[in-house]
Amino acid sequence: MDHERDDSEPAAISRVAEPEIPPDLTHQVQALLQACFPEYPSRTYFKLPPHFRYLAVAAGELVGQVGVELRVIRAGRNVLRTFGVVDLCVSESQRSRGLAGQLLAEVTQLAGSCGMDFVILFADDDRLYTRNGWARVANPCTWLKIHEHATLGVATAQDTGALMVKKIGQRAWPEGEVDLLGHVF
Ligand SMILES: CC(C)(COP(=O)(O)OP(=O)(O)OC[C@H]1O[C@@H](n2cnc3c(N)ncnc32)[C@H](O)[C@@H]1OP(=O)(O)O)[C@@H](O)C(=O)NCCC(=O)NCCS
Fold first, then answer.
1. What's this model's pTM, rounded to 2 decimal places?
2. Which pLDDT tens digit goes with each residue over 99-146?
3. Rounded CA separation 68/185 (Å)
4. 9-65 per-position pLDDT tens digit
5. DSSP at 139
6. 18: which residues sit within 8 A by CB, 6+ positions away?
7. 162, CA 20 to 30 Å: which among 4, 73, 94, 175?
């Protein structure tokens, strides 16, 4: 039997709570993040760990991942239940086959079944997200500034130029300032 990796094998996607990711997979997550994002720190998160991840494994190897934050945020006077998408990445050899789209579809589906109002993310390049149902919004944002495990202060009412939202429930995306009630991701 040929044990070479078969690049055509579809990836199996599973959801795992962050504290339950076993050490060998944690190493693979870190390696993938460092391969996909230049100057990623030597850990599996940039500011703080996400609450859970979707991991895509093909032929026993991690080929894609997305972190998800459970975040209650405030937009104007509205308190919203959201999932925040963080550090979505797919290994270079597996790109352009729809895997990131599948990971985003998993997050969207869970958000629907959990009664979330929106799935939000921050991205400069909006191509993948526009194609998968996200829209760019320009609300000024307030967040807790965290760098290398130190709280530096609060960024207030800044236009990130990167916020994108996908409506899950019945509520329209509100106008006004967004308070992330935590770090930006
Ligand atoms: C962005 C990324 C996750 C896409 O993964 P993928 O499995 O190839 O995505 P899909 O096949 O579902 O969709 C591909 C489309 O995403 C878009 N895309 C490519 N790179 C992108 C990027 N960095 N940001 C946003 N969209 C991107 C393109 O429109 C692409 O279409 P193409 O293949 O015809 O060029 C992958 O390129 C990656 O890991 N890049 C490095 C990490 C990164 O930049 N992550 C995004 C952080 S916001």
1. 0.96
2. 999 999 999 999 999 999 999 999 999 999 999 999 999 999 999 999
3. 10
4. 789 999 999 999 999 999 999 999 999 999 999 999 999 999 999 999 999 999 999
5. -
6. 49, 50, 51, 52, 53, 67
7. 94
Closest CA to 160 of 119, 116, 120, 124: 124
Task: Supply the residue whose CA is at minimum distance from atom 43 of ligand 1.
Answer: 89
Domains within the chain, CATH numbers bracketed? 12-183 (3.40.630.30)
Residue with tokens 């300032």: 177
Q: Please tell me if the CB atom of residue 93 comes closer than 6 angstroms to any atom of ligand 1.
A: no
pLDDT at 9: 76
| Residue 122 Cα: closest atom of ligand 1 | 48
Q: Separation of 17 CA from ligand 1 center, angstroms?
A: 24
Token reading at 150: 């130190």
